[in-house]
Amino acid sequence: MIEKNADSVYSYPDRVKFFFNAVFLHCGVISGAKMYKAKDYDFTVEQLGPCKFNSPIQLSTVVGGAYANYVRDDSFVRNRINVFSKEEPNSIDATNLLQKAGPREKIYFDPKKVKAGICTCGGLCPGLNDVIRAVVRCLWNRYGVRDIVGFRYGYRGLFKDSNLEPIQLTPDVVDEIHKIGGSFIGTSRGGGNRIPTDGVDTIERLGINMMFVIGGDGTQHGALAMAEEIQKRGLECAVVGIPKTVDNDFLLIDHSFGFETAVQQAKEAIASMHMEARSQPNCIALVKLMGRESGFIATYAALASHETNFCLIPEIPFDMEGPNGFLANLEKRLMDHKHAVVVVAEGAGQELFASNDETDASGNKKLADIGIYLRDAIKSYFSKKNIPVDLKYCDPSYQIRSAVTIASDSVYCERLGNNAVHAAMAGKTKIVVGLVHDKFVYIPAKMAIASRNFVDPEGALWRDALDATGQPILMVNDEEKAKKIMCQKLGL
Fold first, then answer.
1. What residues have CB less than 8 Å from 86, skipping those under 6 apart?
2. pLDDT digits 0-9 by tens, 356-414
3. From the candidates 247, 319, 395, 456, which is the catalytic residue?
């Protein structure tokens, strides 16, 4: 979601201000508008039915009574807290109010009759085991649920022909798994197209009445299809998503779990590469990080490292050649400082390659390898100019994805898992749980997957990244062409 920063256009030189304003105007929307209009949001949370059982969790209903409280269904968090124009009021209705997460006084399911399922889908991400552990322990210790299964290797574990028996999960089984990376129950890509048929067949056959799906955008599309098929069959099963994307590109939520760990790991990789670069003459360190469509990891890592000279992300197009291109600017940096550190997100610069319609098992477009491309292009450029360079290339992506969480992510995962359980026990379905303005809320899955979150080219984050790197604001020779590329990238 691109939301205009109140001060952003005043912080750029006029040429850049006009460029970004023109991007939005070229795409048929007014500069400062949102890609997804506020009036189109509907944050109404679906409920399986009335809650008739008393929660086994003993909390208070009196605010100010010095005891932890239940959360009521009429407790909300505003999505839009900043108002940039009179034409877009800060509404107090379902277009703007997100239901607060937390334990309810009355719950929908009888805990003694609950059979819960958990699956993790997609690529690895720091925190998967922390979330699994939190879900199991909250179900078991707080609600007394004794039948919890983990479906192995993502959605594949839900298909009978995969011959993957579910794992019975208890606190004893999961208590130590947060100390290792990866996914204890395994993960895989794809399979979402079979969920409404084969997947729901298994849910019905095993008598699963609450399903926790941990995964990214494609996974949550599958979870929504699962919930809709469950509803069609008249089954009573709550489907609650826990959004997982190391790229941090989920719409609406503050950040995804594992993101802060990824940034920390990326920062350490950059620091090592910087040491290599500055220790040798004319040395260029090139680091490729995750970020298919959104450059949050690269941007945050560049800010955190204080040692990145160029940060290339999917949202900002750049040219390789020409007087304003990346290579010319890299040469200038090298001549002035004798070393350079370049950080590139995996989805950056895809416009430099021939169009490719191939997709992976998750339905994501297969990306050309920008890291290898830059490595070879840099070597070729300086070779032709008879300038000796020493280029070091590093892709720490798999190391980052499989890392154990840092403390802040571990806390976040624990709270996400707990709040997902509270949602399912209260009969809420077709939702994801996430953090919005530092408050845990329930977001209808349809809204969470409506679009992606991007680094705002006009926003304070990117402005601060430019300050940190010292790179040119734009590295393009044809601004009109760059406008068209940016519109396509951001879905405008």
1. none
2. 777 666 566 789 999 999 999 999 999 999 999 999 999 999 999 999 999 999 999 99
3. 247
- What pTM was computed for the model? 0.90
Known catalytic residue at 147: no
Nearest alpha carbon to residue 351 among 328, 319, 380 = 319
Percent helix / strand / coil, the chain, rounded to 5: 40, 15, 45
3-state secondary structure of 322: coil
Sequence-separated (6 or more) residues with CB below 8 Å from residue 214? 118, 119, 120, 121, 128, 131, 132, 241, 242, 244
Strand-pair category, 428-429 with 46-47 = antiparallel
Q: Could you tell me if 241 and 445 are in contact, meaning their C-beta atoms sit under 8 angstroms apart?
A: yes
Handedness of CA 232, 420, 439, 56 (dihedral sign): positive
Q: How many CB atoms sit inside 10 A of residue 21's CB?
A: 16
Query: What pLDDT sits at residue 340?
Result: 98
Residues 6+ apart with CB under 8 A from 139: 114, 116, 145, 148, 421
183-192: burial string, b at 16+ Cβ within 10 Å, e else: bbbbbbbbbb
C-alpha radius of gyration, the chain, whole number: 24
- Sequence-ordered alpha helix ranges (H) in 350-406: 370-384, 397-401
Tokens 């399986």 belong to which residue? 48
Q: Give strand pairing partners of 431.
A: 240, 444
Check: CB of residue 470 under 8 Å from CB of residue 313.
no
* Residue owning tokens 């990080």: 289
Query: Taking the alpha carbons of 29, 30, 34, 37 in that order, is the dihedral positive or negative?
Result: negative
